[in-house]
Amino acid sequence: MDFSTILTYMYTEIALVGVIIAALLYDLIAGARGRKYFHGVICTLMLLFIAGTVWPYQQENASIFGGMFVYAPIYSIVKSVLAIGTLLVFLLSDSWLRKPDTEFKRGEFYVLTLSTLLGMDFMVSAGHFMMFFIGLELASVPMSCLVAFDKYKHNSAEAGAKYILSALFASGLMLYGISFFYGTTGTLYFEDMVPMINGSALQILAMVFFFTGLGFKISLVPFHLWTADTYEGAPTPVTSYLSVVSKAAAAFALMVVLIKVFAPMVEYWQTLLYIVIVLSITVANLFAIRQKNLKRFLAFSSISQAGYIMLAVISGTPYGMTSLVYYVLVYMVANLAAFGVITAVEQNSGKVNMEDYNGLYKTNPKLAIVMMLAIFSLAGIPPFAGFFSKFFIFAAAFEQGFHVLVFIALLNTIISLYYYMLVVKAMFITPNDSPIATFRSDNSTRLSLLLCLAGILILGLASSVFDGINLYAFGM
Amino acid sequence: MVHMEYYLIVSTIMMFVGIYGFLTRRNLLAMLIAVELILNSVDINFVVFNRFLFPGQLEGFFFSLFAIGISAAETAVAIAIIINIYRNMKNIQVKNLDKMKW
Predict the structure, then answer these.
(1) Domain range spanning residue A311?
(2) Left if phi > 0, otherwise alpha if psi is -120 to 50, otherwise beta: which for A350?
(3) What pTM was estimated for this model as a whole?
(4) Which value does ipTM take for this structure?
């Protein structure tokens, strides 16, 4: 193996490291005056990065570094989905980063966010449990710094403490599981491990411990207790990043490990996932109904969406893989649109509660319509993209014979429709004497909302997107 | 020679003491120490499995080295966040972290 092989298969990670170094150097050299243009510089860099790596260059699976790093076209597609999500978050974070107390440390925000993205990329294409663990930690340690980014705010510090302690606990349990896999199989490479896995009691225990670590990252129900507090306390752009990009990467990595490594124990992890899915969807929906703070509300909504994502994982087929990636893409644009509106309103008026949104349509009709479309897409109302993504997910699980599970998920979709409509009702119907004043958000937020809106409207109708992903979901 | 089971008994006790401590301590630093116990029990597990079951290879040793390094980094970040909490509230008791609930 020489450098050209590394460059051929690791191009995404190498380019991302280049972007991180460029951002670090710019932060160092530019000074206070140059930092005014930081936003433009980093968005251009990200755009170049995405343009260069969006479509997989190599069409075959390959592994380098003796099997530690695995390349597959579908991984490359997932990485570009994550990168696009990061770019959208960058676009909508500008108005927050221009505030005087964050202005001087905006470089840190970009570098930390890109480091988590790098960690997720490594986690997705890991071929060895050590690589997987390092990727997971690289994704979650800078993330806790981002959650505690508003140093002088009590809520942000509290959220950061809750996040880092739960993350440490979860990764400790996950490592304990991995150590038993090592003890029973004698290897940590995914490929070598498969023939050694026989579903003995110790291995089932190890798998449950391992599942805990990733269940924490995806915030499935028994491991979700940190979610609402962290989402509420973290700065809003960080919350949007946490709810979309971090969750998507962990869900995909979980699916890859379950299918590739734990294939011989398929009936055990399907039982486990079955219980977790039912709990996640139901409990999160019931809690979402009683929320008054919009960020907490979206936190519970994202827990139930994670339950839906797991429906694709439980199917364990290439079709399920395609529908997972597609669902994540659609969920990303819809959720980022909702968070974009919340960020814009919060930066201009400082309000995040649902009753503050009463009568938003009267004063800010465009924002209200974007929010409405995003919520329709999250709830799965046709013809928006969310309907099609939910349909594919349900079809993937139904095909594998999980009829009762799909029925429970459908019932929960109806419950979720109720609380999603509460937001729309607040914005359009409930009268309010003193609604949020009319304001003009900055260009970068508008651009990000426009892109999300285009995604919500087009992704569902352009069938070529799903077909394009489906082309690469082979060989899983 | 000490048998493998004795090492595993020690590591299992450390693991569950860590879990118990994490759930019952009411001080952020004590919770952090409890988590460290969990991570250290994992390191013992890896080294013991490698030494006794697969003496021909080094994978377990390497994993425990990496796990030690990464958990040190995590602890540093956690302590930084705890110090930030101390600056904001002048103590680090868990009962004061109750602004956001339900």
Answers:
(1) 3-474
(2) left
(3) 0.94
(4) 0.95
